[in-house]
Design a protein that fits this description.
Radius of gyration of chain A: 26 Å
Number of domains of chain B: 3
Number of domains of chain A: 2
Helix content of chain A: 25-40%
CATH superfamily of the largest domain in chain A: SGNH hydrolase
Oligomer: heterodimer
Distance between the termini of chain B: 17 Å
Strand content of chain A: 15-25%
Structural class of chain A: alpha/beta
Order of helices and strands of chain B: HHHHHHHHHHHHHHHHHHH
Largest interface: A-B, 24 and 21 residues
CATH architecture of the largest domain in chain A: 3-Layer(aba) Sandwich
Number of helices of chain B: 19
Shape of chain A: globular
Largest sheet of chain A: 6 strands, antiparallel
CATH topology of the largest domain in chain A: Rossmann fold
Largest sheet of chain B: none
Structural class of chain B: mainly alpha
Number of strands of chain B: 0
Radius of gyration of chain B: 24 Å
Shape of chain B: globular
Number of strands of chain A: 15
Helix content of chain B: over 70%
């Protein structure tokens, strides 16, 4: 009998461990909604002074790294895409169990939500990051039909069918970026869509209506802040796609805010204060890009500091992760500048001075790389590429992984293995190949090629070619 | 509640644990209570019908034990009429009314509208037949009338079998209920084996049946989009779906009963390995086939009578069996087709033997036997088309397309690999079917269920199989929100 009991216990333990691992692999690791909530739990208790809540307009438009660098405000974006106010309310309740912010800012674009339940995928986004708690149960009850609550609470029944979409990240220990624990919920958009002007909503005086459920939770949010005695601020992020009926709903929000004495910042009416440039500061119709978000965040930093007399926390013991976040952001910002650069000369000039020592760069001169029109060789030697390469072509690898020189016309090979990826550089009399994650990154068969890898963000920053035959025009 | 639901995952361990620890005297009462909780979890109202059938057949049984011989038939007829009236009202009323209206329409009269709408009470065909079987057994003197209403109530409502069978007999389940107070319940191996069967049942239901159902539904619901081979694939898929669906439920019922130390009928015995239609009916839904054999076919005269009479008996039994499965002419057609298969089988027997003799066919050769298995499967799958189609007309249309529109290219253009399931899903299905095939081979050749086979193997192999099944159900099982749980097909009957 003893043997049987031991056998049963061992088997059950094995089965449990197996299911635990499966749960780990299949669990959703998306940066939208879920990771920011999970990472929130890792923040130093009592360290956050400003909490931002809301939808994607929060996590794409408000950059805590900028608030930190501008004013030493430790802040956090706790948001999920299309987040309805009932999810926001429970995110707030949950967060107040761990942090005691001096101000809570709620971005209210989704006050326009008029459905009682939003689509399942978004409900997952806006609930699954939460730990098991009364708030999570309440959040689910508000978000989905009664019969789904148990499955959502378990989680696994919802995501087990992800076997068709598993990726490397699902098997890694941590699903986010390597500095994710410090990213403070911000999810920058690095694309740009140009608009000619800003939509003018200043003439919309109509007062619309919120759906019954949205208004109920808006009022609950206000009540929660009062109960907790924490100053509350409402804001509407600036966006190009706004229409009059939405502005009418925001007008109603403003009315309620005025009744309740809550400051209301409608940035669709405050473009000029922010200094937004419609040509360069939007990612698309709904969100600011990284440039736009920097402007909005800087404005918020100085406004919040002034209004609520927030202390400058820089240098404080609890705040190392905000320094780390700022460093992470700066690195990403520099990476972006490098990735956007389309001139060969400027790119080469940027290389030595960017990346804070974290870059490995591969420079090659392929085929008939010299059209004799531009000072290619001189520029290369200036930034430290050996003369043998500048003169006869080949590959130069420099930066964080040390120097490797593979002159053209000979057989040469270099394999660099990194945390999550690797690069194989092969030089032979027939030509050369940069194999990054199985894909050749040579862009210009005759000309200059540059590949930059950043060890800080563990990502490929750029792989770009400049074709000699076309006057060194950029090839991506 | 379904066996593959969260509620059951809570209900069953709780019910079983309490059953193991309570005093012996209370076991019957406890199981009865648990059975009613189980049955009422879907719709409490229909417990009234269950109670009605229980009380009427219970009283009928007692009465049969008391009335003189010449009155017994009348008592039996009365109780049959009462129980079948309930069944007819709840299951066949709309069907009968529909047919009446068609007839009235043809005669130029206006239609009669239905005075009420009922949802079909779960398991009504199963427990009604189980209770009626008991009554006939009492009538024939095969079993004593049960005087204890709790015991009898448990016999009719026993939760492992109430929703979808097997249809148990007084000589089996009722006897075991009578022996309940004497049983030594807890035995490690038995509980382990029962749980193993439940696990394999879950695999068959959630990984195979509910997955292949997507393919079958795609083809049957859009059959006008498809031609010969896709339609054949659809029909074969449905044949596998209904088998896995039903057999998985029977297997889980068997496993659940085994944990509680009840032996119930093995309802399926590798039916798709049958070499003839007669053999198929000895291996498919055994509890129902034997019910019809013992309580309908044999009383009608069975096969010990003239040829015409025998064929009539066969046909009548299969038509009633068709109607038992559902209130629709397409079920009747399905039953009729099976009756026809039997009659043609008898008629062709002599001819077939003569041809085989002339051609010196080696009838025990593997190839010949395999051929028989394939032909039998083909005939069965063909008949299922009527079963699955919403009407006889649709079934004929399906068959017409299937036989008149050859589409050889569908083997090459990937169409057969794209019938409602994508490539990954199809691969999961194929691997799962291969696993099922191996288990069926063991069952066929070694006459062992999975639990008995695994018990003989080494520990590492047993554990590897169980963990693989747990993993497969957890990952590849079709469940969770967004997924409209495939009801067990047989609940509707």
């Amino acid at each position: 009998m003893k043997k049987k009991i031991i056998g049963t216990v061992v088997f059950l333990a094995l089965a449990a461990a197996f299911l635990w691992k499966l749960n780990d692999i299949f669990s959703l690791k998306q940066e939208d909604g879920i990771l920011p909530m999970e990472v929130f739990y890792e923040q130093e208790p009592g360290s956050i002074d400003v909490m931002f809540y809301g939808s994607s307009h929060t996590y794409s438009d408000i950059n805590p790294a900028v608030l930190w660098e501008e004013a030493g405000i430790p802040s956090y974006d706790l948001a999920g895409s299309l987040q309805p106010l009932w999810n926001t309310y429970y995110y707030m309740k949950e967060s107040l169990k761990y942090q005691r912010p001096k101000v809570m800012v709620v971005e209210l674009v989704r006050a326009i939500e008029d459905r009682d339940y939003i689509e399942e995928a978004r409900t997952v986004t806006n609930t699954f990051g939460m730990k098991f708690s009364e708030e999570k149960v309440e959040n689910l009850k508000a978000s989905t039909a009664e019969e789904n609550v148990a499955d959502y609470l378990l989680g696994y029944p919802v995501y087990h069918s992800r076997y068709t979409e598993l990726s490397r990240a699902d098997f890694a220990d941590y699903g986010g970026d390597p500095n994710g624990s410090a990213s403070k919920g911000f999810y920058p958009l690095f694309v740009t869509k140009s608009f000619e002007s800003m939509p003018d909503m200043s003439q919309v005086a109509e007062i619309g209506e919120l759906s019954e459920k949205s208004e109920e939770y808006l009022r609950k949010i206000i009540a929660l802040a009062k109960e907790e005695d924490i100053p509350l601020v409402f804001m509407i992020s600036p966006y190009q796609g706004i229409i009059e009926s939405e502005q009418a709903v925001f007008n109603r929000c403003a009315e309620i805010a005025a009744e309740e004495g809550v400051p209301f910042l409608d940035f669709n009416q405050m473009y000029e204060d922010l200094g937004l440039d419609p040509a360069s500061d939007f990612a698309e119709a709904s969100h600011l890009n990284y440039r736009g978000s920097t402007k909005l965040s800087a404005w918020l930093a100085s406004w919040l500091k002034e209004m609520y007399e927030l202390p400058d926390r820089r240098g404080g013991e609890l705040y190392a992760s905000w320094d780390q976040n700022a460093a992470d952001w700066n690195q990403k910002y520099e990476n972006q500048l490098l990735a956007e650069e389309e001139g060969w000369y400027d790119l080469l000039q940027l290389l030595p001075e960017s990346g804070d020592g974290y870059y490995t760069y591969v420079i090659s001169l392929n085929g008939n790389y010299d059209n004799g029109e531009q000072p290619l060789k001189e520029t290369l030697t200036e930034i430290g590429v050996p003369e043998v390469i500048a003169e006869q072509g080949g590959v130069y690898i420099g930066g964080a992984d040390g120097e490797t020189v593979l002159p053209a016309g000979t057989d040469g090979f270099c394999h660099l293995e990194w945390e999550h990826s690797d690069l194989e550089v092969t030089v032979s009399p027939g030509g050369m190949i940069f194999l990054y994650e199985g894909e050749n990154q040579i862009r210009a068969a005759d000309g200059l090629n540059v590949l930059v890898y950043d060890h800080f963000t563990e990502s490929l920053v750029t792989a770009v070619g400049f074709s000699a035959a076309d006057g060194y025009s950029c090839v991506r | 509640m379904l066996f593959n639901s969260l509620q059951f995952a809570v209900f069953f361990p709780a019910a079983a644990l309490i059953y193991f620890v309570i005093p012996k005297k209370l076991r019957c009462l406890w199981l009865l209570l648990a059975s009613y909780v189980f049955y009422m979890s879907a719709n409490p109202k229909y417990a009234v019908l269950l109670l009605f059938t229980t009380v009427v057949t219970y009283a009928g049984g007692l009465l049969l034990g008391r009335v003189p011989e010449n009155r017994k038939k009348a008592v039996l007829a009365l109780v049959f009429a009462a129980c079948l009236a309930v069944l007819a009202l709840f299951k066949y009323f709309d069907f009968l009314l529909g047919n009446l209206n068609t007839a009235l329409g043809a005669l130029g009269f206006g239609a009669v509208s239905s005075p009420f709408r009922f949802a079909l009470p779960l398991g009504i065909s199963f427990y009604t037949f189980q209770a009626l079987g008991y009554l006939v057994d009492v009538y024939r003197g095969d079993t004593e009338p049960e005087r204890n209403i709790l015991r009898y109530g448990l016999f009719v409502s026993f939760f492992p079998v109430i929703l979808s069978g097997p249809i148990e007999r007084s000589t089996g389940l009722l006897r075991q209920i009578r022996e309940l107070p004497e049983k030594a319940l807890w035995k490690f191996e038995r509980v382990r084996d029962g749980l193993t069967l439940i696990l394999f049942g879950l695999f068959q239901k959630m990984v195979i049946a509910d997955r292949i159902a997507i393919l079958a539904d795609q083809v049957f619901d859009n059959y006008r989009m498809y031609e010969m081979f896709a339609l054949m694939t659809g029909a074969a898929a449905y044949a596998i779906q209904i088998y896995c669906d039903f057999t998985s439920y029977s297997l889980m019922a068997f496993g659940v009963a085994k944990v509680l130390d009840f032996g119930i009928t093995e309802n399926f015995n590798t039916p798709y390995f049958s070499r003839s239609m007669r053999e198929f009916w000895r291996r498919w839904h055994i509890s129902l086939s034997s019910w019809f054999r013992d309580y309908l076919y044999i009383p009608l005269g069975g096969s010990r009578c003239g040829k015409i009479r025998r064929y009539f008996n066969l046909m009548a039994t299969f038509l009633v069996s068709g109607l038992w499965h559902g209130a629709s002419w397409s079920y009747v057609a399905w039953g009729g087709l099976h009756g026809l298969y039997q009659i043609i089988g008898y008629e062709l027997k002599g001819v077939k033997e003569k041809i085989n003799e002339k051609l010196h066919t080696k009838t025990e050769a593997l190839s010949y036997r395999l051929g028989q298995v394939l032909v039998t499967f083909g005939l069965t799958a063909f008949a299922w088309i009527f079963f699955r189609s919403p009407s006889i007309g649709t079934a004929f249309d399906y068959i017409r397309r299937m036989v008149t529109k050859p589409d050889f290219w569908s083997f090459f253009n990937g169409e057969l690999y794209n019938l409602g399931l994508d490539r990954t899903e199809m691969n999961v299905l194929i691997v799962s079917l291969a696993a099922l095939f191996l288990v069926e081979l063991v069952r066929y050749f070694r006459k062992q269920q999975l639990d008995a086979f695994l018990a003989e193997q080494n520990l590492w192999f047993r554990w590897a199989v169980l963990l693989a099944l747990i993993g497969a159900v957890a990952v590849f099982g079709i469940y969770g929100p967004g997924y409209d749980a495939q009801q067990f097909i047989y609940f509707q009957f």
